[in-house]
Structure formats: structure tokens, C-alpha cells
Amino acid sequence: QMPSSLHTERYDHFRRLLIEKRKDAGLTQATVAERLSKPQSYVAKYDGGERRVDFVEVVDIAEAVGFDPSELLREFQNKS
Predict the structure, then answer these.
(1) DSSP code of 1?
(2) Angle at 55 between CA 50 and CA 61, to 5 degrees
């Protein structure tokens, strides 16, 4: 049986890349959440690995943080 994708090395790597993009942009969880019209806990939960994000959410997060989602995918593939 496959483990939940929240609890794999690959998902943890993906999550760390999202955090890195946010921090590189100099943004707090609260700022990103505000830009997404979500509560701060939304960002805290995906940062902390408690919540899975889908592809559409990744695109929304990329727009809120200011990075190209295809760049994130390339970085993920290069380091996986």
C-alpha cells in the first residue's frame, strides 16, 4: 500500500520548496494568506505538512508569492 502523499520524502521536498519561495520573496504566512483571501492557518497548515495542496492551489500560491509555477516544477524535478 502506498503511503499518504503528505508523508513522503517527495511531498516534504515539495513543501520545503513552497516555503523557500515564500521566504525568498520576504513574505510572511499572514501576507500570503491575505493575498489568497484565506486565513493564516491555511498557509500554516500546508507549510507544516498538515494540509495537502492541489495543482490549482499551487498556481494560486505562485501568483500570491510571485513566482512561476513551472519554475517550481523544474526545481522539484531536479532535486527529486
Answers:
(1) -
(2) 70
